[in-house]
Amino acid sequence: MQVSTAPNRWNELNKDPDDRSRRTTKTKLTYVNFANGSTPIIDPINDLAKLKETLQSLKYDSSNKQPMRLFIVEDLSQQVIEALGSRFDIDPLFWREQIEDYVWHNLRAPGAMPSNLMSDMRHRQWFRVRNLRLRYHESKDDFDASTAEVHSWNVLRRLDDDNNHWHWADKQGAIVSMLRTRTTIWIGKDDKTGGGTVGIVLLDPTVAHGTPLWYDRTNWLPVPKMTSTTVPDIKTSVSWYDDIIQITKLFPWFETDAGEKRAIDAQVITKPTLYTICAEWLVVCDYVKGRLSQIERELELPTIFRAKGDAIDSSLARLHTWRRAVPVFREMVTETLNFALPLASKLTHSSSPTTPLQPSTFPGFEDIAPDFQRILELLTDLQERVDRLSDVVASEISIEDSRRGLEDSRRANTEAHNMARVTWLATIFIPATFVSGLYSMNGSVQELRQTYWIYFVTALPFTLVVMAIGWVIGGGSLTPWRVAKADGGWRKDEKKKKVS
Which terminus of the chain has a smaller tally of CB atoms within 10 A, N or C? Predict the structure, then answer.
């Protein structure tokens, strides 16, 4: 509360009082008032004074026996936490769950939070859902601008480059970013207004730069009938915050067999968010599958799908991103199935706080639970695919290293052959040079005419003697014809390997 954002930013905020003041009073939320048989009232709140005025105006309405109110909050701030937390008596841990999102902590991290106990979670009035959001950036500058924008949020998030750019099809310089998103939902009763149900949904902001991957997630809303007189006015892919507000406004989406809409219940607080998260997960699964298929094509046809001079190590580097990320994705979805859905079912059905959680059953959420099960199965298949590709890439790297070793060995044999030739040439001419120098010590060359033949008679036997000594010392294995024979034999064996 004193920092007004993640505690890790305390030092930098002390140097910028204006930024700290902005973070403290930041207010962006939407108040939704539901009533059976009528359209919900949507009221955007963008300043602190209006928020306090709205909270003070909440009263019990005898005509609406079970008032249901929802606050959808984007980002967090000190004043918003104080206003909503004090009005509805909310556990501070609810807000703490939303502030940071780390996959792991350093040993000396002061903000690390241990895992929760199941026995503690069943008494809570809130739950969290984690997911991944992808965004396409056409250039590095666009990605850097988005990174700076994420740093201006009060919740601590990190925009990661997936490092999976594919030169064959992707635009030069384009980047697909990955943002781990956290959504926390609180459901309780407002004793000051006759025990009406109140929900608070905490959402992450959306960067203004870039576009959603493939421009939109799947649409699950029913198609209007030909006889319909009204068509829902909805624009998706505006932002994470705006999309969930629009989906919430249209709830319930499906009509009964009699053509009448279902009555509003507490599921309106959770289902719009869960449906949107589930649709976003399907985009992630399709994207990872596409990137893995590209790596497989590179392994299958390296001469076509690899850049000039690009080694297989680049495929391993791209694959390493998914080796690290996919297990984290599975953990997120497993947490949703084992904790979020059971708690959502318990809180929306007014169960006793001591009722044990049942991860295998989701009363009221039977329609969306199979989709999360399907996503978990897809991620499991993708992880197995990553493991198989890792083995294949490691084998190809080993084969490539062996091939390079053979080429180096062949080059070394050729150099040894050349050096052997030079050595034997030197061996042949050194004795002759020695004898020549010995006979040249005479000052008169004419006197050598009668003894010129003695040079050859002496030099040739001396050369043969030196060569014989070299043969004996070398073990009889350093002759040039043996090197040539060995080299020729290597080439013959290499041809056999290529044919086989």
Answer: C
Question: What is the per-residue pLDDT for 445?
Answer: 57
Instruction: Specify the DSSP class assigned to residue 338.
Output: I
Q: Copy the structure tokens of residue 20.
A: 């700290």
For 334, how many CA atoms within 13 A lie in the half-sphere containing its CB?
Answer: 9
Cα torsion for 438, 442, 444, 449, to the nearest 10°?
A: -50
The residues, any chain, with a CB within 8 Å of residue 25's CB and separated by 6 or more, are: 48, 77, 78, 79
Contact 168, 134 (CB under 8 A): no
> Taking residues 2-11, what's their average pLDDT?
78
Q: Is 439 exposed, middle or buried (0-12, 13-18, 19+ CB in 10 A)?
A: middle
Residue 388 corresponds to which tokens in the numbers above?
A: 């198989």
CB within 8 Å of 65: residues ≥ 6 apart: 194
* CB neighbour class for 282 (10 Å; exposed up to 12, middle 13-18, buried from 19): middle
69 touches 31 (CB < 8 A): yes
Helix (H, G, I), strand (E, B) or coil at 497: helix
Can you list the alpha helix ranges (DSSP code H) found in 337-368?
341-348
Q: Which residues neighbour 285 within 8 Å (Cβ) at sequence distance 6 or greater?
A: 375, 378, 379, 382
For residue 92, with 0-12 CB atoms within 10 Å meaning exposed, 13-18 middle and 19 or more buried, which class applies? exposed
Measured between alpha carbons, how far is 364 from 432 in angstroms, rounded to an integer? Answer: 104
pLDDT at position 28 over 80? yes
Cα distances (angstroms) measured from residue 90 to each of 117, 214, 339, 499: 19, 39, 20, 75
Residue 15 burial (CB count, 10 A): 8
Contacts of 484 by beta carbon, 8 Å cutoff, 6+ apart: 417
Chain-centre distance for alpha carbon 275 = 22
The residue assigned the tokens 């939704």 is 32
Tell me the domain boundaries of the chain: 7-103+116-223+236-367, 415-499
Helix ranges, 40-99 (H): 48-56, 78-88, 92-99
Is the overall model pTM greater than 0.90, yes or no?
no
Which residue type occupies 318? Answer: R
Q: Which helix (H) or strand (E) holds 69?
A: strand 68-74
Structure tokens at 53: 């005025």
β strands within 148-297, DSSP E: 159-161, 175-190, 196-203, 211-212
For the chain, give the mean pLDDT.
81
